[in-house]
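Here is the promised in-class demo. Please do not try to memorize the tokens; focus on the logic of going from shape to residues.
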């Protein structure tokens, strides 16, 4: 059965860590493609206002433009509502009935899984791909045992870059060269984002 990886996130902005994680995940399970799904309103980041969806969507589009393995979806953006994973998973499962779907997340997101809306429903419907180098067991101690049956860990370089760090660097007039794809850096500068 063909495999597809769903990769949701705020992508504010998308950076090389996201792209490397997606590439390694695709190769690890030999998936046909990775679908990037920028959120409209991320449910776990209600304490900050994300950059307008148009900019985040455009940056992902630029970042993955030359990679045939990567695809962009506007599903969550078109809904114009809080982007709950359980809704996204249901929609993609209906759309790709003849595919095995996986949801790609980082270790930092995995530990918050029990706080997700209808997380138990999500766990029943899809397997999670989690990139790691080494796992600190204490980080996973709060996860319910049944979740581990639905997690596939794979080795991936841990790129210590965060979107919030990139936003902070721009705010303080530091360079973001090499942290984001060149086209994304150019887009950020042209549109004076994160100033």
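The designed amino acids, position by position:
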């Amino acid at each position: 059965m063909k495999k597809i990886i769903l990769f949701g996130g705020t992508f504010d902005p998308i950076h090389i860590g996201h792209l490397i994680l997606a590439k390694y995940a695709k190769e690890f399970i030999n998936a046909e493609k990775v679908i990037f799904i920028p959120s409209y309103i991320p449910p776990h980041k209600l304490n900050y206002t994300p950059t307008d969806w148009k900019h985040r969507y455009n940056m992902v589009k630029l970042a993955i433009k030359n990679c045939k393995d990567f695809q962009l979806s506007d599903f969550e953006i078109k809904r114009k509502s809080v982007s709950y994973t359980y809704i996204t998973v249901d929609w993609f499962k209906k759309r790709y009935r003849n595919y095995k779907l996986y949801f790609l997340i980082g270790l930092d997101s995995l530990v918050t899984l029990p706080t997700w809306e209808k997380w138990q429903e999500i766990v029943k419907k899809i397997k999670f791909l989690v990139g790691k180098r080494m796992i600190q067991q204490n980080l996973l101690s709060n996860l319910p045992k049944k979740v581990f049956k639905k997690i596939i860990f794979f080795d991936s370089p841990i790129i210590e870059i965060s979107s919030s760090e990139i936003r902070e660097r721009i705010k303080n007039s530091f360079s973001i060269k090499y942290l984001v794809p060149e086209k994304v850096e150019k887009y950020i500068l042209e549109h004076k984002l994160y100033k």
